[in-house]
């Protein structure tokens, strides 16, 4: 992780999002440093997924600003945000269930493709060379995620935990600078959670990917995060290291519960 003298990779400044009379985010500010794992926790309805939607361009704050590598992305549509190097996974699995695992992950490469539509369509020249290069990278992602044995299996036939791993692979195939993970371990058993936690740490340490993580499993959050931000009713109530968050009175009362305090 870069030192404090470097500007943040991402800055969220005084963001407000309302859905009718409901204030999903009420003046939330945060930043993410290059190379860190930042976790966002909070009760259901705290605004965690809404924050992911704001950063990825699905929702636009009014008022508020989003800066990525110094560039204002507040009103950018999602595909422009993705082109800058921000990828995401979803709380509910969003993969193409009728397509093979290989093809699902290959979809994550489309923003990296530079050849024109014609050369891609008839598969010659630059298009053919690009296809080979991108296919090689996707095969590397598949091996890295240890899913080579299901690479030709339709994604919809896989167990839920493996579908979540495929979705992670599709996001990583885009080679993002910043990866937004919305409950990547939801619905998984202990072994599956351990695998995903390992892949997140490896993506951060080996690939240099900066991670924005929403997760309900406090054991995982406290083990792998550099910093933790706590939301409640659309407002930030705490921010700090995992150790600081564990002992924060507001957090204990609002989310963690007195039984978790040591």
Provide a compact summary of the structure.
With 262 residues, the chain is α/β, with parallel strands linked by helices.
Instruction: Characterize the overall form.
Output: globular
Q: In percent, how helical is the residue content?
A: 25-40%
List segments where confidence is low: pLDDT < 50 over at least 5 consecutive residues: 115-119
Mean pLDDT value: 87
Architecture of the largest domain in CATH?
A: 3-Layer(aba) Sandwich
> What is the domain tally?
2
Q: How much is the radius of gyration in Å?
A: 19 Å
Number of helical segments? 10
Number of strands: 10
Query: At the fourth CATH level, what is the homologous superfamily of the largest domain?
Result: P-loop containing nucleotide triphosphate hydrolases
Distance between the termini: 28 Å
Give the strand content. 15-25%
**Strand neighbour order, sheet with most strands:** 6-7-8-3-9-10
In CATH, what is the class of the largest domain? Alpha Beta
Order of helices and strands: EEEHEEHEHHHHEHEHEEHH
| CATH fold group of the largest domain | Rossmann fold
Helix/strand class: alpha/beta
Q: Can you summarize the main beta sheet?
A: 6 strands, mixed
